[in-house]
Amino acid sequence: MATALLFGITACGSDDSGGSAGGTGDDASPLPPSASGIISAWDNACAVHDVEAIRQFMGIRAFGVEPGAGEAGGGFSTNVVNCDVTEFDMPLWEYTNVLGESVTDDHLAGYMYLRVNYYETQETFAGAYQNAHNEWAEGSTTVQGRHVVDERTLEGDWDEGSLFLGSDAPDEYLGDRIVIGKVFDDSWSVSCEIIYDADPVAWAQDQQEQVYPFTDEELATWVADTYLPQIHAAMVAALAESS
Length: 243
Hints:
Layout: E1 4-11, H1 33-40, H2 51-58, E2 62-63, E3 80-82, E4 85-89, E5 93-96, E6 102-105, E7 109-118, H3 122-135, E8 142-143, E9 146-154, E10 160-167, E11 176-184, E12 188-197, H4 216-242
Parallel strand pairs: 1-11
Antiparallel strand pairs: 1-10, 2-4, 3-7, 4-7, 5-6, 7-12, 8-9, 9-10, 10-11, 11-12
């Protein structure tokens, strides 16, 4: 399967954290224990992440594997709970082949990693934040092996945010796209990574109409303006309710 990539990262810190999201202050100082204690007790992150919203926006037909806890240690630290979907089916592609026959192709697919990470000290938090910026630095030409098509600075209830849209080469057969978003806060972060086969209109000869109900740019904007703020707010509410 080929895929597409979009990445967003946002960071937020408070005076109580012992430093800013960028790692200033006393890096060895402990972070507020409540968040890590609450998050580490969760079986998965599906109560915070909105898989249904992603499904509706992207027109996903079905999940090959139901959302749930994925492999431990993903995201930006080993302290992570997941709500991964390791396989999903994109909309059907209906077209007429060279023989004039009607064809229904059900092979377009994707997968997503939806995660919550938690950090016990400002040192581990600042390290994770810096690692993210090192890998997806402003001005990068590639992201996870794909060409950067778009990058944005995000503004919201956090200190810093950015989003990347990545793509395989335009002429690559069944090229892919990837969307990754991440939001940092005092002792935790939420992230989403969505990888999917490129719409056939981008590469299939004689395909004049979109197959998907969105363009890559529209998905990037939705993740930046709607999904990331929604998930950040959900995390804040979940932690407040459990405190």
